[in-house]
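Field reference: "sequence" (input) and "structure" (output). Example, AraC-like DNA-binding protein:
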Amino acid sequence: MTLQATVSISWVNTVLAAAEQQGVAREVLLAQAGIAAQELDAERWPIDHITRLWCAAARCTKDAGFGLKVGAGVGPASFNVVSFLLQSAPTLREAFALVQQCQSLISDGGRFQTIAGADSCWVVYHPSQGELAFSPHQIEAVLAAVVVFTRWVTGTSLRPLAVQFSQARLGPLTGYREVFRCPVTFEQAFSGVLVTNALLDTPLPQADAQLAQVLHEHARERLAALATRTELGPALRAWIAGQLHAHLPTRAQAARVLGLTERTLARRLQAQGLSFSGLLDEARREAALQALAHSQRSLAEIGQALGYAEPSVFNRAVRRWTGSTPRAWRLAQQMTNDEVDSPAVQSGLSVR
């Protein structure tokens, strides 16, 4: 069992808000992604959740520039405490160094690297996807966010020297030029933003050493808490989901895989506000709703594949999750698919 990358709900909300601005309600987008609305109550999502959200947003908005719009629309709320920590840094160079230290507070889905030259410096983004391949919109959003956020903390209308992507262009060049205001190239060796060293070393207008110290300490505490908190929940969720296709996993099996006793596992989960039965229910819910919305499997087949002994037990579970019967919920999702003109995905039961 390996640790699973996660992303802050603040970044999730940024994506949802951008889709809403284009007329796609968050309920519709979540349904298209196969993600239960209750997941919005979580502080962090598994990285594959937000990848599904990005793919659904691309389908629903039909906008080749969706990722650019998400990045261009970022604000302080998009990056939680990291936003204000960067704003209070003495220079942009030190702000980028803080991003490298605190990146996990926003997302585990990538890391930043700075490559310094004589007169300029590349800020390079290295994506780190989960089991699902990232949407190219995710990468475009990150680089757009870097530029827009740099303008915010410097109080300038920054024009980078250049921006490049390792992937192909998604839409017209005009969309990229509007956001970046500089030459943009594609299918390069890496994705990054090139800025001058002079800009990196210019004092930031809202630099505050005392505030920076307080915020940095808070960020360190959050990172420490995150390291403890994410070791079990996401990893267990991923393991449970991976076992569902073969058999119904048990707490004893999970404890054995983790090298723990059942009591220790239960105690550690309880300390994090979790339980094995709750995580199992979440995994079954996600797999069931995905299968109902995006496959032609019969209700009996789906229920049996997820370990429900009787159709009536599966029926009650779906009612508890959605307030509807499996048949009614599936019909509602099909109607939603028709409304957004998204082709149904004819696939087998997904348990990931």
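The first helix runs from residue 9 to 21.
The chain has a mean pLDDT of 88.
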